[in-house]
UniProtKB/TrEMBL annotation:
<keyword id="KW-0687">Ribonucleoprotein</keyword>
<dbReference type="InterPro" id="IPR029064">
    <property type="entry name" value="Ribosomal_eL30-like_sf"/>
</dbReference>
<dbReference type="InterPro" id="IPR002415">
    <property type="entry name" value="H/ACA_rnp_Nhp2-like"/>
</dbReference>
<keyword id="KW-0539">Nucleus</keyword>
<dbReference type="GO" id="GO:0070034">
    <property type="term" value="F:telomerase RNA binding"/>
</dbReference>
<keyword id="KW-0698">rRNA processing</keyword>
<dbReference type="GO" id="GO:0034513">
    <property type="term" value="F:box H/ACA snoRNA binding"/>
</dbReference>
<keyword id="KW-0694">RNA-binding</keyword>
<comment type="similarity">
    <text>Belongs to the eukaryotic ribosomal protein eL8 family.</text>
</comment>
<dbReference type="GO" id="GO:0007004">
    <property type="term" value="P:telomere maintenance via telomerase"/>
</dbReference>
<protein>
    <recommendedName>
        <fullName>H/ACA ribonucleoprotein complex subunit 2</fullName>
    </recommendedName>
</protein>
<comment type="function">
    <text>Required for ribosome biogenesis. Part of a complex which catalyzes pseudouridylation of rRNA. This involves the isomerization of uridine such that the ribose is subsequently attached to C5, instead of the normal N1. Pseudouridine ('psi') residues may serve to stabilize the conformation of rRNAs.</text>
</comment>
<dbReference type="GO" id="GO:0031429">
    <property type="term" value="C:box H/ACA snoRNP complex"/>
</dbReference>
<comment type="function">
    <text>Common component of the spliceosome and rRNA processing machinery.</text>
</comment>
<dbReference type="Pfam" id="PF01248">
    <property type="entry name" value="Ribosomal_L7Ae"/>
</dbReference>
<dbReference type="GO" id="GO:0031120">
    <property type="term" value="P:snRNA pseudouridine synthesis"/>
</dbReference>
<keyword id="KW-0690">Ribosome biogenesis</keyword>
Length: 148
């Protein structure tokens, strides 16, 4: 009995899933996919933006603010199913020339945004507190190849 209680905390601390392991769950539309390095930079930028309340989270909210003309970087989760939930967002971004990128995990995206729930779309708005990190991410996401 005492051994079971000692062993319980270990499963809670799940080993961090590798980037390569997460790539197996991607949707066919998950292009352009951020590299491992860019994914980490985007997570850091999202965390900084969440502290300043400068993110938009979720399909409905992001879609509403894209339609209103708000600028920012759109980060989409590549493992969201069904893809019909958010497959219109990249088209909206291309129409308004907003940079967007896919990352492998919606649970990691939600955690970076300060939520316990997985999130399939986040918009990072610019702010002077994290301007340097935002500009770096904007440049790298903008340089990703646009899918045909």
């Amino acid at each position: 009995m005492a051994r079971e209680k000692q062993l319980e905390p270990e499963p809670e601390v799940a080993p961090e899933r590798s980037y390569q392991g997460l790539l197996g769950n991607l949707n066919p539309i998950a292009r352009p996919l951020a590299s491992r390095k860019l994914t980490r930079k985007l997570y850091k930028c999202i965390k900084k933006a969440a502290k300043q309340k400068q993110i938009r989270r979720g399909v409905k909210e992001v879609q509403k603010f894209i339609n209103k003309g708000e600028k920012g970087i759109i980060v989409l989760a590549g493992d969201t199913l069904p893809i019909e939930v958010y497959c219109h967002i990249p088209i909206m971004c291309e129409d308004r020339s907003l940079p967007y990128a896919y990352i492998p995990s919606k649970s990691d995206l939600g955690a970076a945004g300060g939520s316990k729930r997985p999130t399939c779309v986040i918009m990072i708005k610019p702010h002077e507190e994290y301007q340097e990190a935002y500009e770096e991410c904007l440049e790298e996401v903008g340089s990703l190849p646009v899918p045909l």
